Amino acid sequence: MVTKITSNGFDSRTSTNLKLNKMSKTKFNGFEKYFIQTALKNAIEEAEQDIKRLVSEGKRPIYAEGYFTMVGGDIIDKVNDMTLKKYQD
Fold it and tell me: Whole-model pTM?
């Protein structure tokens, strides 16, 4: 029987390995939710400002004012739904 030992001397078959990564693979924790929602809110605000600027310059953007607020709100709600219950709004 050949035992494969990795470069750090750890044998995955015979070692009692503690599971160190207890993060959920399917739900966000509180920090992840905060990080994603903050990034989304900033992106929504920036996109809305860009649309308003284009309209004030007399240009006709593809997206109407309020579009990113509406779509972004739906995405933020989805992130909240995909967050562990104890961290949901």
Answer: 0.68
